[in-house]
Amino acid sequence: MAYYWFKAFHLIGVVVWFAGLFYLVRLFVYHAEASQEPEPAQTILKKQYELMEKRLYRIITTPGMLVTVAMAIGLLTTEPEVLKSSWLHFKLAFVAVLLAYHHYCGRIMKKLAAGECQWSGQQFRALNEAPTILLVAIVLLAVFKNNLPTDITAWVIFGLIISMAVTIQLYAKKRKRDKEKLLAATQGKDEEIAGQLPV
């Protein structure tokens, strides 16, 4: 019975942890892009994002991580023989990378708050895809265990990385086009208004 309790709360922890990581880096995107806003909007937005990031990291993301790790340890105590399995070693390696990513996000959060982070919104969008790749690898290992078809898995992850990179680039081009259209429309209106003014 303990196994099922540990497993249930392990899964709950994973969902909370990943939700926090995905949203945290999305906030970094908005925080970085707030630098392009005029004052006082820039200062107001940065303060708001800083507050949201701290609360998300401390109240949701980190507790989700702690529950995930604690329940995983609980699961291992109910099935210690699984520690000899090679699939678990790979899974734990990916989890270690995810833990490093989690703490790296904490460092970025502090740098953003201090105004010392020079990352662009697009760079943060790319960073935001890292947990997706880790999630796919971890879930596939947990489901397939030693029967994971590594050749197909490698192609799936490679395809995922390529599609993410293409999507980020296409989105960046769309944003650039939209800004150019908005700028052209604004300039056109300014010229129209100037033409209507009495000389």
Automatic annotation (TrEMBL):
Names of the cofactor(s): heme b
This protein's record includes keyword Acetylation: no
Membrane topology annotation: Multi-pass membrane protein
Catalytic activity: protoporphyrinogen IX + 3 A = protoporphyrin IX + 3 AH2
Subcellular location: Cell membrane
GO molecular function, one term: protoporphyrinogen oxidase activity
Sites where the protein binds heme: H10, K91
E.C. number: 1.3.99.-
Cofactor note: Binds 1 heme b (iron(II)-protoporphyrin IX) group per subunit.
Keyword Electron transport: no
Family annotation (Pfam families): UPF0093 (PF03653)
GO cellular component terms, semicolon-separated: plasma membrane
PANTHER family, per the entry: PROTOPORPHYRINOGEN IX OXIDASE, UPF0093 MEMBRANE PROTEIN SLR1790
Role played: Catalyzes the oxidation of protoporphyrinogen IX to protoporphyrin IX.
UniProt protein name: Protoporphyrinogen IX oxidase
Native species: Allocoleopsis franciscana PCC 7113
